[in-house]
Structures are given as structure tokens and as C-alpha cells.
Amino acid sequence: MRTADTLEVVEVFRSLQGEGQRTGRVTTFVRLAGCDLACPWCDTDHKMRELVTVSDLVERVGRLGPTGWVCITGGEPGVHDRLPMLVDWLKRSGYKVQVETNGLVIDLALAGLFDLVTVSPKLHLGRKVARLIEEVRQMSNTELKVVVDQHERPWFNLLLDGWRDDSFFDCPIYLQPMSCGPEETRRCVNFVEKMGRESVRLSLQVQKILSIP
Predict the structure, then answer these.
(1) Which residues contact 33 (CB under 8 A, 6 or more apart)?
(2) With respect to CATH, is domain 6-210 assigned 3.90.1300.10?
(3) Closest CA relative to residue 70, chosen from 53, 49, 87, 45
(4) Which of helix, strand or coil describes residue 158?
């Protein structure tokens, strides 16, 4: 039954964070259903969802075992109007909170609620990604995770060239090969080597390499 304090939840599980700057750290993941996009490669089963109250969800997180961090992912967490309530309950329970988002529906005010905001712009959206990245640079405690596929995107190459400006690197930028594919991985390695910047890094999906959740 949907009430004022329920969220649509796909799954809650405890594992290692496999991507970005927190790679290798024990994390409890809360995967919410629903998204404002329909990316063809999305691996979230949005049909598998249940309505869970915020209090029950935080209790479920606690039962999974000790961890200092909770990562709210999706789907797109930003489409849930009860997201601030969940973050508040988690923080009052002593957790630090990370959110993984495509960045299209999370503004500066909402981003400020989190200890870490991982923005993963979708390259197939075209040049609007460049504008999104400019907005993301204004957020604190933010990392960019750009998933790179096999498609050649000249506009993205131009964007990388623009990143050579020293003033751009206010947050770390992780280039992540889609599905750890060999061609995608080579492209990411080439991009990182081309940039030659401390803030531009390779991110592999360690959870897939290790076959863990």
C-alpha cells in the first residue's frame, strides 16, 4: 500500500563498492525503481519492485551488517520525492550517504544532502551532456562517472579536449568501459593516457570482475 513515506524498492544488499573513488569499500546498496530515461543497456529489473516505508528500509539496511556508507542507486533516485526523507533517516542513523544519478533531475539543493554525488551522464543524450557536466562542476562532493561504449562520438572527443583547461578539474572524472568490454576498455585507457591528468581516471566495474553483487 502506497503511503506518504513509502518508496518503490528493487533490492537492498551489502557488497563492495565497485566503481569510482570508493572502490573496494564495504557499502550497503539501496536500489530504487523508476527512472526518467530508458537506456537500452540498463540492467535494473524495474518490474521487480516493492513498496517499503522509509523506516522499514532503514531497518533493513541495519540488519545487513556494519557499514559506514549507504549508496542509493537505481533506476534514477532523483525521481522519488521521498528521497530527502530517506537520506535524513539514514544520516540520523549514523550513515554517510552516496547517490548515483544521471544528473538530470538532481539540483544543487538536493545534491547538498549527500556526502558523495556520483553523476553518470549518458553519452547517447548528445551535446546536452556537456551542459550537464558544466552544472555538475558547481556541486561539492561530486564525482563524474562517464560510461564509454564502442560508438565513436566526435563531440565527446571535443569535450575531452576542453577538459585540458586546468580550471575544469574541480572533481574527479572516471571513464568506465561499458560492461568491461575489451574494446571499450582500450578506448578508456587511451582517453586517460591522452588526458594525462590526475583527476581523469580509469574505473572498472570491480563487482563484475569479481562476480559479486
Answers:
(1) 8, 9, 10, 44, 46, 48, 49, 74, 75
(2) no
(3) 87
(4) helix
